[in-house]
Each structure stands twice: as C-alpha cells, then as structure tokens.
UniProtKB/TrEMBL annotation:
One of its GO terms (cellular component) is external side of plasma membrane. This is GDNF family receptor alpha 4. SUPFAM superfamilies: GDNF receptor-like. Keywords: Cell membrane, Glycoprotein, Membrane, Receptor, Signal. Residues 1-24 form the signal peptide. It is found in: Cell membrane. Residues 29-108, 120-214 form the GDNF/GAS1 domain.
Length: 269
C-alpha cells in the first residue's frame, strides 16, 4: 500500500473531523452517540444496523429489508435511554441536525428506491397488511394523535408513550425521519400528490407526523428529561472514533484504505 500515513497524522486527522465547527454549543447528538458507544449492547446493535444499512446486495441495491430489521432490533433491544437519545437529541444548528438526520442511514432505511417519494397510500396500505407494521402504526395513532377531548389536546400522559411508539415505526415500511437539517420536522418518505380520491385519508395520515403538536411537544420535552444519561460523558468528542478505529486494530496498519470505512461511519457515530 503506497499511502502510508503516520499513525499520529491519522489520529490528528480524525480529531479534526470530530470537532464540529460549533463546538461552543454542545452537540447533543454527538453526546448521544458517545453514550451509545460506551454501552456494549448499544454499540453492538448500532454496528449491526450500520453494517446492514451501508451494505449492498448482489444486484447493487441497499438491503432495505435487512437494514430495517436491524433498526427494529436496535430499538427493541437497546436501552431506550440510549436509543431514544440518538433519535430525539435536540439541535440548535444544522451540523447537529444533519447528523441527527443521518443517524439511522436514511438513504437505505427511509428513502428510495426511486428518486421521488411515493404517495403515502402505498406504504400505508403495505403497513396495514403487515403484522410487523400494523400494530406499531395503531400504537402510534393511539399515543401521538391529538385528542381534542383531553385538557391539553393530547392523549393523557402521552409524551413518553408517543416517543416509544414513534421509535417503534423506525424500521417499518413507514419509517419516519427528520425531513431536513433546518428543523425538527419528521415524516415518512412519501407525499399526498398522487392520492386521487383518497387524498383526505392520505393527508390525515401525513398530519400524524407533520404539524402534529402532540408529537412535536413530546420530542421537545424529551430533551429536558435526557441529561442524566449523557452527562456521564463530558469529554466525549475525542474518543468515539478512536474506539471504533482501534476495533480494527491499532492504527499502525499503514493502509489509508483501511481507514475509509471509519470515515464513512463518522456521521453515524
Ligand atoms: C443541510 O442540508 C442542505 C440541503 O440538503 C445541505 O446542502 C447542507 O449541506 C446541509 N448542512 C449541513 C451542515 O450538513
């Protein structure tokens, strides 16, 4: 291998990559990633979904079904304190929000295979015929949909149930994600453009995600409750990548190529 960088140089490079430009404001999504890295089970489950979701099938596509199954396992088996911190970390700048948007490998788990989002009716019908998805959608509707008769317009004591139900949809045909890096808006990858005479049904479904103040409120409230888990990792910026890279053996291996997977993982860790 001709590209033989000094280990020290590589370390330096990694540390530079790790420092977000806005290091003044704590990046809670980085904190959440560090906390997951520090927990053996969370780290293992995350490595598993990242591996599947960045993988390729023989035909060159992403193995969406495997990726999504691994994501469901991540949320089913990982400690909610850690998995929810990754999913709901609050951001004040686009660097953080972009990282949050990328955390669950949206290119495989969320969007595609086509370039344009389908009508929501397709994934919605698929969900209603799926033993995995249907109960999760029902739980999401019951826990997150506004309830006009309740005093604050949301189901009673709904915030944590709503977040759990939302997390339950990640890895289904209705996998939601943050739609951009400028807001905390979430939605599945679909729209209601071509929904014909079922447009109302389609819009009602989409509004469970976009402009749902019960869901938005629950996501915002999450942040105030999450600090205890993450405060254990105050000096976190340096070590996550180093731990990952040392999992591939010490940096003395002088192939730059062997570093590339680590760099590709960086937004996810
Ligand atoms: C935010 O998203 C826009 C549009 O996708 C993109 O061009 C920009 O690079 C992103 N910002 C960051 C900090 O990643």
């Amino acid at each position: 291998m001709a590209h033989c960088l000094q280990p020290l140089l590589l370390l330096l490079l990694l540390q530079l990559l790790l420092r977000s430009p806005s290091s003044a404001a704590r990046n809670r999504c980085v904190d959440a990633a560090e906390a997951c890295t520090a927990d053996a089970q969370c780290q293992r489950l995350r490595t598993e979904y990242v591996g599947h979701c960045l993988g390729r099938t023989a035909s060159g596509d992403c193995p969406r079904a495997r990726c999504r199954r691994a994501l469901r396992r991540f949320f089913a088996r990982g400690s909610p304190a850690l998995t929810h911190a990754l999913l709901f970390c609050s951001c004040v700048d686009p660097v953080c929000a972009e990282r949050r948007r990328q955390t669950f490998v949206p290119a495989c788990a969320f969007s595609g295979p086509g370039p344009a989002p389908p009508s929501c009716l397709g994934p919605l019908d698929a969900c209603e015929h799926s033993g995995v998805c249907r109960p999760r959608l029902l739980a999401f509707q019951a826990s997150c949909a506004p309830a006009p008769s309740a005093p604050d317009g949301c189901p009673p004591d709904q915030a944590s149930r709503c977040l759990r139900a939302y997390a339950g949809l990640v890895g289904t045909t209705l996998t939601p994600n943050y739609v951009d890096n400028a807001s905390a808006r979430v939605a599945p990858w679909c729209d209601c453009g071509a929904s014909g005479n079922r447009r109302e049904e389609c819009e009602a479904f989409r509004e469970l995600f976009t402009g749902n103040r019960c869901l938005d409120g629950a996501i915002q409230a999450f942040d105030s409750g999450q600090s205890p888990v993450l405060q254990d990792h105050p000096d976190s910026h340096q070590h996550s990548l180093l731990q990952v890279s040392s999992a591939d053996g010490p940096l003395k291996g002088c192939s730059l190529l062997s570093m590339l997977p680590v760099l590709a993982l960086q937004p996810l860790l």
